[in-house]
Amino acid sequence: MMRLFCCLALLAAPTVQALEFELTPTAGYRFGGQFEDSETEAEVELDPSATFALSLNVTYEPGQAIQLFYSRQETQVDDIDPTLDFDVEYFQLGGVASYDGFGYDGKLEPFIVGSIGAAWFSPGGGLDDETVFAATLGGGLKYPLSDRLALHFEARAYFTFFESDGSLFCVSGPAGGQCLLRASGSLIYQIDAQAGLTFRF
């Protein structure tokens, strides 16, 4: 039994040792996120604003990695009265495909990424939060500064799926429930550009 355990450990060891990790904090700027005013039916949009993101890549073989991704945006809708603050957060699991470097020194590393998970829209004013299915698709470049550190540049699109024409961000009151916005379709999309540093270990 001990011999079997030792053999399994030896077989597993190369796989464990082959794993590589990349932790990447980024900051960026995000656009998009269109809804309808429930009362006027006018289109309203989340204001463009700064974003913060953190990703963890686990490389299990050259050029292929699993990614855990988190992103947060603090924004508002100022097309309605009163202005409404919004926090938007994405929790995602996906995959990354990286390719051989190019450029004058051959160090620019292109990559593409795709993920699925959840999006959390949290308005102020005591309105209900909304947690819905979301997916992302993006790509970018990494430029190594050393074996353990790289510059990271990325653009990513966010696709959030709501019930078509469903009422959103509701609150209960003496006169009954009231909903501030509704989805203008089944898909709400956003896009951002990010830059940061990748730490490899």
Let me know the largest β-sheet.
Answer: 8 strands, antiparallel, barrel
Low-confidence stretches: 1-14
Biggest sheet strand order reads: 1-4-5-6-7-8-9-12
Please report the distance between the alpha carbons of the first and last residues.
34 Å
Instruction: Determine the structural class based on helices, strands and strand pairing.
Output: mainly beta
Count helical runs.
1
Rg on CA atoms, Å: 21 Å
Strand content: over 45%
Q: Let me know the number of strands.
A: 12
Helix and strand run: HEEEEEEEEEEEE
What percent of residues adopt helix (DSSP H or I)? Answer: under 10%
Global outline? elongated
The average pLDDT value, as a whole number, equals 85
Task: Kindly describe this structure.
There is one protein chain. With 201 residues, this protein is mainly beta. It has one helix and twelve strands; from the N terminus they run αββββββββββββ. The strands form two sheets. It has an eight-stranded antiparallel barrel. A hairpin with a 2-residue loop joins strand 10 (167-173) and strand 11. The protein is elongated, with a radius of gyration of 21 Å. 25% of the residues are buried.
